[in-house]
Structure formats: structure tokens, C-alpha cells
């Protein structure tokens, strides 16, 4: 039905996306006005008072420019606990001037219910004090409504709440990640903007994400000696927006793309079906994830990630000391990624026999997510379940009072799709790929992006010409239970 061309790199394709969300009605909550404190010689402190049941506070703002709903913004931070009776974030390196306008929105979670205040602004007008200057926003307090998904009515069990058939790229639904990824995974690719239209194409109702080798576009040795500045960078970390190649800190050898629904669509609990053909090629993998809309339980993977189907693109990747331990495209995995200082995965898997590979054909990958945990299936066959009967068992620390058995997976999550490359998380050390030792190590004193990459400066030697497209031809999500 669909064909692949043997040209340079693997594609991820999505034809249909149907999602079902749980909506819970809760009582209204009045978000208190933030307290702005201008610090000397520079910096800004923003805080709200602590209140019973308040679990999480995040602030998102732009200085002298508008901010969209759900936009990360240039002035942003997540606060996970109160200190001295206030939920406080500080930006001590921020330089602001009299008359600067801060446009912002606020998100808080109280007793498990999310609330948001949008379209707010404040004008800085008190910078003449040698001591921290208290500036109280003059906006009249408003009642914030609970955050809801983009659904016009309460869906019934089994009803589709989002249907994406990829007749065109719906930019009102999908946004790009644009960054050079660092922590926690240090992927070996740049998630680029739409300046390279061939990275993301829709052909005959098929979304194709087609990575390319950096040096094929920008010239030989740019990986070693070049400089990369990303227009429209979506990260608030400067090093993820601009990098110079220095010593082992080379530029990512691959350009790829990742899309997400973070600013337009998120949900809680459902049955997710993905019809997909995963990418082929050494050190490639599909990125089909559920990611937390808000980092309530902490940064990195402390707030969780759900792997909605995953296999490595290598044709043959095995343990160097035990060839029976398989990590290549014969092995399909589903699961959860968890933790902050120490990151780990809980997965279920199925190994394909008779020499076949999961990325050679289309399959239907299904995840059922409810208040008990997760069930994973492929082509209608159950692969395994991950459940919890103990509160907090999946949390790295207990800083939230109202946890549940499946925390952190009791919050709203959004969808990410893309093609990933390398990194320090996905490919185990001491493995052999088609007779060659894996050319980098995941751990070391310095977790630079491609530290100790033996094929440094020669990405073709590492990735070859086997960077084929990965295909996803349908995602459907139905409501699995009523709330």
C-alpha cells in the first residue's frame, strides 16, 4: 500500500489521530495575583502565597512581546514546593528596564485540579530603589476555570475526541520542537524548524518525517567546526538554541523533526491505537510518546513519559558478550520512562522470530491507559501490562500530598511524534551492530553530546545511507472509562 525509497533517511508517518479525553468538572478557584519583586542590581522575583491544597505553580511570560496560550515564553519556571509561605521563582540574571511590559499566563494545581489564568500583563514601573522593590500587579483578581481539553462537549465512552487524517499539516494542532537537545537524553540530532520543508511532508494522506545528515546540507566538517543558531527555538535553555563545535562537543550529525500537540491538545486516560511502520537505519528510533502537559511531579522524567511503541532501527544489534540479548528491530517495546536524578524504564516487549523485523511492515500498536495503569498490545495481541497498587511507587520523591497509585500518570498528557537519533538513553553500551562495536559511550565524566564518538567528523561512517523513513498511518484514541 505504501512504498519506501532507498534514499538517505527514515521517516515517521502519521495518517490518522483519534483521541479521547476524560474531563473532570471541579469547583472554581481564585488564583491570587502574583507579587513582582525587582531585585538589585538585576533580576526579578515572582511569587504567589501558599494555600491549602496548592501543589504546583508555573509562570510563563514574555518581555515586551505577546504570549500565546500554552506558549513556554522566555520568562518561565516550574515551582514544586512553597518556601517561607510562598511559591517563588527567581531570575537573578534577568535585566529589565523601567517601562518593560511582562505578558504572562499562570498555571497552578490545587487538590489535583488544574487552573489557569491567561492574557495577563504588568508594566515595570519601580526600578529606583537600592533594595528589592515590591510591585503588586494591579489586575483585578479573576476566577480561573479548570483547564479543559479542546472538546466542545463531554465525550461518551468510546467516542473519538480528535481525528487527524493528515490530509494536510494542521498547524493549529501540531507544533514543532525546535532545539538542540541536551538533558536528559542528549540525542544526536537537531530538531529543526520549517526552513527545511523536506523534513516533514504529507503525501497522499501520509505524514513523513525524513531526517537528513547535517554535512550533506551544510558541508564537510561543519559537524566539527561549525556554528548552529536555531531561528524560532522553542527551548528556554540558551545552549539548546545556539552551539559552537568545540573539541568533543561537536554539532549533532543529523537534522530531524519532532511535532507535538502541547499547545492545542492534551488528555487523560484513553485507548490509543497507532498504525505505523517504524524507521530503518542504524541508531534511529521512532518517537511516539505521551508527555506530561505540566511537570507537576518534577523535571526530566519525574513527571513521566509513556512509550507508545518503540524499536531501534538497527538491523542487528546484540550484547557484545551475549548474542542472545537482542536490542535491534526484532525487539518491540512499550513502557514508561521515569525519574529525575536517576532515570529508569519499566517496559514490556515482544521479540519477532523467523528473522523478521518490526520496522519492515505496518503494525497496529495499542496502549490502554486508565486509573489502574497501562495495557499494551500489537495487532490485537496483548504484550503486557504495567500497573500499580501502591501509591507513589512510580515517583522519585514524595513532594506531592494527593498522589495516587499511578502517579505521575494521573495528569493530562500530550502527544509527541518524531524520529530520534542516538543519545545516551536508548542504545545500551557494550553492544555490536552488524559486527561493529557501538561507537560511543552513554556515561562519562562529561555528558557531551557525542563524546568519544569514534567516527567523529564522519557521520556517514556511523549512519551510512540507511536512514530510511518511518511511517505512521493512523492514531486513534477512545475514552476508556468515565470520570
UniProtKB/TrEMBL annotation:
It holds the Pfam family Glyco_hydro_16. It comes from the Eukaryota. Residues 191-426 form the GH16 domain. Gene3D superfamilies: 2.60.120.200, Beta-1,3-glucan-recognition protein, N-terminal domain. Keywords: Immunity, Innate immunity, Membrane, Transmembrane, Transmembrane helix. Residues 29-129 form the CBM39 domain. InterPro entries: Beta-glucanase-like, BGBP_N, BGBP_N_sf, ConA-like_dom_sf, Glycosyl_Hydrlase_16. The chain crosses the membrane at residues 12-31. Belongs to the insect beta-1,3-glucan binding protein family. This is Beta-1,3-glucan-binding protein-like isoform X2. The gene is LOC107067718.
Amino acid at each position: 500500500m505504501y512504498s519506501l525509497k532507498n534514499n538517505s533517511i527514515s521517516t515517521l508517518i502519521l495518517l490518522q489521530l483519534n483521541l479521547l479525553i476524560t474531563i473532570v468538572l471541579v469547583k472554581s478557584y481564585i488564583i491570587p495575583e502574583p507579587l513582582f519583586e525587582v531585585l538589585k542590581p538585576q533580576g526579578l522575583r515572582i511569587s504567589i502565597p501558599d494555600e491549602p491544597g496548592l501543589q504546583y505553580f508555573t509562570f510563563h511570560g514574555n518581555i515586551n512581546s505577546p504570549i500565546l496560550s500554552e506558549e513556554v515564553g522566555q520568562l518561565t519556571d516550574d515551582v514544586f514546593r512553597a518556601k517561607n509561605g510562598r511559591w517563588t521563582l527567581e531570575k537573578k540574571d534577568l535585566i529589565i528596564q523601567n517601562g518593560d511590559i511582562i505578558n504572562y499566563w499562570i498555571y497552578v494545581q490545587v487538590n489535583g485540579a488544574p487552573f489557569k489564568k491567561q492574557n495577563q500583563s504588568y508594566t515595570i514601573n519601580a526600578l529606583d530603589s537600592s533594595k528589592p522593590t515590591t510591585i503588586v500587579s494591579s489586575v483585578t483578581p479573576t476566577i480561573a476555570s479548570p483547564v479543559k481539553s479542546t472538546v466542545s462537549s463531554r465525550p461518551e465512552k468510546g467516542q473519538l475526541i480528535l481525528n487527524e487524517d493528515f490530509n494536510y499539516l494542521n498547524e493549529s494542532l501540531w507544533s514543532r520542537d525546535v532545539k538542540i537537545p541536551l538533558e536528559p537524553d542528549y540525542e544526536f540530532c537537531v530538531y529543526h524548524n520549517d526552513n527545511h520543508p523536506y523534513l516533514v511532508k504529507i503525501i497522499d494522506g501520509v505524514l513523513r518525517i525524513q531526517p537528513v545528515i547535517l554535512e550533506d546540507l551544510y558541508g564537510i566538517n561543519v559537524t566539527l567546526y561549525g556554528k548552529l543558531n536555531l531561528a524560532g527555538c522553542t527551548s528556554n535553555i540558551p545552549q539548546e538554541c545556539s552551539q559552537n563545535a568545540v573539541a568533543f562537543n561537536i554539532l549533532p550529525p543529523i537534522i530531524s523533526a519532532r511535532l507535538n500537540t502541547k499547545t492545542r491538545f492534551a488528555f487523560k486516560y484513553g485507548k490509543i491505537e497507532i498504525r505505523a511502520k517504524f524507521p530503518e537505519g542504524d541508531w534511529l528510533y521512532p518517537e511516539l510518546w505521551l508527555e506530561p502537559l505540566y511537570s507537576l511531579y518534577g523535571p526530566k522524567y519525574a513527571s513521566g513519559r509513556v512509550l507508545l511503541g518503540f524499536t531501534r532501527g538497527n538491523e542487528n544489534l546484540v550484547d557484545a558478550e551475549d548474542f542472545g540479548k537482542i536490542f535491534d528491530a526484532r525487539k518491540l517495546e512499550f513502557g514508561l520512562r521515569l525519574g529525575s536524578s536517576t532515570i529508569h524504564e519499566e517496559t514490556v516487549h515482544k521479540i519477532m522470530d523467523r528473522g523478521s523485523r518490526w520496522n519492515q511492515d505496518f503494525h497496529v500498536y495499542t496502549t490502554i491507559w486508565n486509573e489502574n495503569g497501562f495495557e499494551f498490545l500489537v495487532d490485537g495481541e496483548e504484550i503486557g501490562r504495567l500497573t500499580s497498587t501502591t501509591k507513589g511507587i512510580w515517583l522519585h520523591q514524595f513532594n506531592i500530598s494527593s498522589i495516587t497509585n499511578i502517579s505521575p500518570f494521573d495528569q493530562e498528557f500530550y502527544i509527541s511524534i518524531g524520529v530520534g537519533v542516538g543519545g545516551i538513553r536508548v542504545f545500551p553500551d557494550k553492544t555490536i551492530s552488524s559486527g561493529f562495536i557501538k561507537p560511543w559511550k552513554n556515561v562519562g565524566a562529561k555528558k557531551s553530546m557525542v563524546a568519544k564518538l569514534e567516527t567523529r567528523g564522519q557521520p556517514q561512517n556511523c549512519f551510512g545511507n540507511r536512514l530510511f523513513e518511518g511511517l505512521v498511518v493512523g492514531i486513534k484514541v477512545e475514552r476508556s472509562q468515565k470520570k
